Amino acid sequence: MDRIVVRGGPRLEGVVHASGSKNATLALMAAALLAEGETRLANAPRVRDVDAMLELLRALGAQAEWLSDEPHTLRIDASRIVEPEAPYDLVRKMRASFMVLGPLLGRCGLARVSEPGGCAIGVRPIDQHLKGFAALGAKISLDHGTVEARVEKLVGGRVVFDMVSVNGTQNVMMAAALARGETLIENAAREPEVLELADALARMGVDLEGAGSDCIRVRGARRLRGIHHTVSGDRIETGTLLTAGIVTRGDVTVTGTDPTHLDAVLDKLREGGAELDVAADRVRARAGEPLRGVDVSTAPYPGFPTDMQAQLLAALCTADGSSVVTENVFENRFMHVPELQRMGADISLQGRAALVRGVPRLAGAPVMATDLRASACLLVAGLAAEGTTTVSRVYHIDRGYERIEEKLRSLGADIRRES
Ligand code: UD1
Fold it and tell me: Do 305 and 224 fall within a single domain?
């Protein structure tokens, strides 16, 4: 198993390019199942979750591969779906696999997908996805851990989500894309990845409006065509790299992401004292002083993203003053806290809130990544720490960050991967 070794201290400086958005790519790959023809996704990140989705699409009978001459372009042709069933072995690796259920139901009138179960950041139910499919006429059953959805023909309906779910919204949008008539999705997620999927669905032939608001209207089509699409930059990777620069009091510019997708994160970094220059496709962050403590609460978009909570928390460990970080989206997303405490962070947990009292310096230590963003947080902490931090279980980080250690090294970090 690989581990990443970081020696804290060097100030990060320079320009680095963000990869394409992992979460947008995963939804778009599922959407490619809706088309009877080829879809190409350019600027897709070469990360493990995308490879896992490729494996799943192939298991369903689609042709799905990286183009050999364009290393960040995916080609997916789901003209033929042989087996509308996503096996446990693939689903358990990645919850986002559940997003194939909507498209499969639309294409085949039948889908079987293993129940994804809990994960390191808490129980993540799928009840809202299922509620949506039922509103479109599907009969849902759970048999030996497998969710089966069946329908003669999906018919548009009204879906009111009890809570905002990103993949739930996307899954139901995709089912509705091949339903007869109109579907209204209320209390829909407003994340940029929902908007990007909506734009792609529209180009595939779906009549759709309202994406980006909390009410999306989808008028289904009989058949959909494949498209060529360029995936937008990863807003979470961008936020992570900027935060990494700031904890070293560096000067880092990240290109390739629309900064408006990061507003809530940039606002907090600014509030903490970082100096930001924002242009159309780049953000430069400088910090001459340690950050000041700030309070932050995660919330669905346009609120502060839960996927940036761990990395900001790591940066606040060496801030001047105290911070309260409240996690409102997932119920168990503080697994990184004990690891940060081992590095000398002063954090106390009270339910959904972490009270962080800034210390002058963290101390490098062997630590263990527990999930994707927690592992990014440990790298951020390692960059700010005195001495060497060894992050084990880095397969978590490889799920969602492409060559993170190379990108950080290009900015001057003392970081290497060991097998
Ligand atoms: C997506 C992102 C993930 C991000 C999350 C929140 C992808 C591949 N993943 O995950 O990186 O952290 O959005 O921004 O895009 N919930 C239910 N019932 C459901 C669905 C969700 O109770 O049917 C709850 C979850 O347990 C959680 C909350 O709703 O507490 C939000 O989860 P959701 O937005 O669905 O996350 P994902 O779409 O799975």
Answer: no
Q: How far is 170 from 172, CA to CA, in rounded Å?
A: 6
Q: Residue 117 and residue 129: Cα distance in Å, rounded?
A: 14
Q: Is the CB of 167 under 6 A from ligand 1?
A: yes
From the CB of 125, is ligand 1 less than 6 Å away?
Answer: yes
Nearest residue CA, atom 17 of ligand 1?
A: 125
pLDDT tens column, 293-311? 999 999 999 999 999 999 9
The residue whose CA has the least distance to atom 27 of ligand 1 is: 330
For tokens 């995916």, name the residue: 74
Q: How many domains does the chain have?
A: 2
pLDDT digits (tens, 9 = 90+) for 220-250: 999 999 999 999 999 999 999 999 999 999 9
Report the pLDDT averaged over residues 209-229. 97
Distance CA 63, CA 328 (A): 39
Q: Is the CB of 126 under 6 A from ligand 1?
A: yes
- Global pTM value: 0.97
Q: For position 66, which CATH number holds?
A: 3.65.10.10
